[in-house]
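hey so i finally got around to running the thing on that chain from the lab meeting. sorry it took forever, my laptop kept dying and i had to restart like 3 times. anyway pasting the input first so we r on the same page abt which one it is
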Amino acid sequence: QVQLVESGGGLVQAGGSLRLSCAASGRTFSSYNMRWFRQAPGKEREFVAAITWSGGTSYVDSVKGRFTISRDNAKNTVYLQMNSLKPEDTAVYYCTVAAYWGQGTQVTVSS
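ok and heres what got predicted. didnt touch it at all, straight out
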């Protein structure tokens, strides 16, 4: 059974940092693209960042220069380093690979 488990969310002041992790189990995803999405209250889920199987990355404009996505294929894990956080980054963050989604981790940025 495939599971994606996010961790690392929490409450942080504006300007602070958090590092999210998403650990996959049940199969290996080293040849798949992995992505992070987020959903703020009352808003649609939006794409945040993606990393290809070869390490290429892409980001939504609002997080470029502040967030960094990375992966460790040996650990079947994808990360999202979030720096210079803003209140508008407050959301539930989800990782996804293939057709699978994690349960999400809450990130709250206070002003």
